[in-house]
Amino acid sequence: MYFRVPMFKQSDGTPSASFTMMAVGFGLISLWLLLSILEEIAGVPIREFSGGEAMAYFTPLAMLYFGRRWTSEMGTEKANQLISSIRGSVGGGQTTPSIAPPPSETSEGSESQQK
User: Fold this and answer.
1) How many domains would you assign to the chain?
2) What number of H helices and E strands is found in the chain?
3) CA 47 to chain centre
4) What's the mean pLDDT in 99-114?
5) Looking at CB atoms within 10 Å, which of 66, 86, 91, 92 has the fewest?
């Protein structure tokens, strides 16, 4: 049996799992912030809000959504070129040129004069 999960739609009208996860995560963090104003509700203690924990939860969700959106807007060809350049090869098996560090300012002659 096929189970369909309802998803929020992006600004272009297409359903998106990453947007849904980010929106739900933002909602949960906002709810935690609002509830942490109170110490307890009906005898149930509310944990103190922690910005570090909230960002550790929300940052990967936001990175997933915005990274996926950035690569989809970039287009398939440019995204594949970016991935190839990150892996160290450009189409056809050629390697990307390496960037050499600048030459050292000190020379052997100046080192011998200091001794």
Assistant:
1) 1
2) 4, 4
3) 27
4) 55
5) 92
